[in-house]
Design goal:
Layout: E1 2-6, E2 18-21, E3 33-34, H1 42-51, H2 54-64, H3 71-81, H4 84-89, E4 102-106, H5 115-127, E5 133-134
Parallel strand pairs: 1-4, 1-5, 2-3, 2-4
Helix pairs in contact: 1-2
Amino acid sequence: MIYTSYFANSRNFPQGAIPVAICRGVPNWYNGLVYQSVAPTQRILQEWHEDNDQMAYNVRFAHDVLRNVEPVRVLNELQLMIPYEVREKMDCPVWDSADVHIILLCYEVADAFCHRHLVAAWLNRYFGTEKIRELGA
């Protein structure tokens, strides 16, 4: 399965879960994987801090980030980030696995506006279902 969550929730992750940060920077203590193909640009973050306009952020993020990557490519690259020894034992892709979990991480708490929710919604549109959801939701 693929989930979304935030760094401060890491103590609640299932055992063996594979955290993957999808933000521009990570906390000093974080030593997990990083995938920046779906991270907001510096411009998007700067404009968000200036105007706090969620609708404008959504448009900027869709235009500047999501339209430049393909969902299937993102999913394949996330799959390849799984350690080889784990991948070798898998009999299905991670998004269908009941045993292997990738958690896409950012900073904001579960109910706060965050780009990871936009990424999850974008991938869910690709699947045509709610495969990716917030951990614990």
